[in-house]
Design goal:
The complex is a heterodimer of chains A (330) and B (63). With 330 residues, chain A is of the alpha/beta class. Chain A is built from eight helices and six strands. In chain A, β4 and β5 form a beta hairpin. The longest helix of chain A has 27 residues. The radius of gyration of chain A is 29 Å and the shape is elongated. Chain B is 73% helix and 0% strand.
């Protein structure tokens, strides 16, 4: 009997017949540890997958929270040590659901999701509005608080890493894309008719749509008119007549640029369109877009983003419509 | 087996320090000491998360 007992204790924990959260193999709530034990694979695979999927769409966070709330912890022998956190929250230690606690749990879940959303949006907003230093200091402070808690052996200090990630990742995205909230929000439309009517700082959009129609702008032959454009998050469409040579220097954090068919998309995009021959009037666009797109077209119906636009110039694959720069258009 | 309350939690310690490191990178960018791009951001975040996972794996291996 003693020998049997000894052999049982020296063997690894048996694979549980039902999915339970791991009590001893856990980073946060033991969900990945439990999945690894249930499927008999290394839980690191689930952890790496969960982190990767969090960056793709964030659905992992919801799934993890749901599994944490619904699945009880393993007591070490493949049996639950008690009711799940959700049942415990709804009815106490006996696990019996009490209707009175339903509102509380619903409010808790809603509050958690709302808090996460506020952290993400707030981090982007503050970074884009010039408060990035304070966001960075906040991330440093939360990280140090987690480290201090860990030194004191407080297991719950791990939860501080969640808001740190929820703030640092979107703030880092906004910083890397150089998103700046300058100018207005919404649907902004401009149609200047004289060079003197152009704003000194150029056209600025914080978030939304910007449409600058230069078809009525009087330009002298052989002159270059510089127009800065700044977009935080959104789409800017510039409409120029075919008789104008367009030169551009565009920086896009994350998105797409299309200057009369000269297109490029992705992250950290820097695109320059230049070269001018002949006496056609020139427009030099200096554009910065954080997240979004910039397009330059001859007609609104050529646009990919305006209403009733069809992106017609894309029909000529690889061809640029910037013919005035070569002196082809009088 | 219950962890001693005085014993440091190494994975969280590494995770906290890694989060602080990411915060310092953000701070340096905002102070215009460095220019953060996606080419730097993704490795920085993944290195921080990787350090946390690595510390956790090593800590569990010792138990």
């Amino acid at each position: 009997m003693d020998q049997q007992t000894e052999s049982q204790t020296s063997n690894p924990a048996p694979r549980p017949r039902r999915f339970l959260r791991a009590a001893d193999d856990r980073f946060l709530g033991g969900v990945c540890g439990g999945l690894g034990r249930y499927f008999d694979v290394d839980p690191v695979l689930f952890r790496v997958g969960a982190v990767a999927l969090t960056f793709i769409g964030g659905i992992t966070l919801i799934i993890y929270a749901a599994l944490w709330a619904l699945v009880p912890t393993d007591n070490g022998s493949g049996e639950p040590s008690g009711p799940s956190p959700l049942r415990r929250l709804l009815g106490g230690a006996d696990g019996r659901v009490r209707a009175g606690h339903m509102v509380a749990i619903a409010a808790l879940i809603l509050g958690g999701l709302l808090t996460a959303l506020l952290l993400v949006v707030g981090a982007v907003w503050a970074t884009a509005s010039g408060g990035g230093v304070w966001i960075a200091v906040l991330v440093i402070a939360i990280g140090l608080a987690a480290a201090a808690g860990a030194l004191a052996g407080r297991r719950r200090a791990a939860w501080l890493l969640v808001p740190a990630l929820l703030i640092a990742a979107p703030a880092g995205f906004a910083a890397a894309a150089d998103v700046r909230f300058q100018g207005g929000f919404g649907d902004l439309r401009y149609r200047p008719t004289a060079v003197t009517a152009l704003p000194a700082r150029g056209y600025e959009l914080s978030a939304g749509r910007l449409r600058v129609d230069l078809r009525g702008l009087a330009l002298s032959p052989g002159t270059t008119t510089e127009i800065p454009i700044q977009v935080g998050m959104g789409v800017a469409t510039v409409i120029v007549p075919a008789s104008v040579c367009v030169q551009s220097d565009t920086k896009i954090g994350a998105g797409y640029v299309d200057v009369l068919g000269d297109a490029e998309g992705g992250l950290d995009v820097r695109r320059q369109v230049g070269g001018a021959q002949g006496l056609a009037p020139r427009v030099l666009l200096r554009a910065k877009v954080g997240m979004g797109a910039l397009e330059v077209v001859h007609r609104p119906e050529d646009s990919l983003f305006l209403e009733h636009g069809h992106g017609l110039h894309h029909a000529v694959a690889g061809a640029s419509d910037n013919a005035a720069c070569s002196g082809a258009v009088a | 087996m219950r962890r001693s309350p005085q014993r440091p939690d190494v994975p969280v310690l590494v995770g906290g320090l890694a989060a602080s490191g990411v915060g310092i990178v953000l701070l340096l960018d905002r102070l215009q000491v460095i220019t953060l791009s996606f080419g730097w951001l993704a490795p920085t975040l993944l290195a921080a998360i990787g350090a946390y996972l690595l510390a956790g794996g090593l800590a569990q291996g010792r138990r």
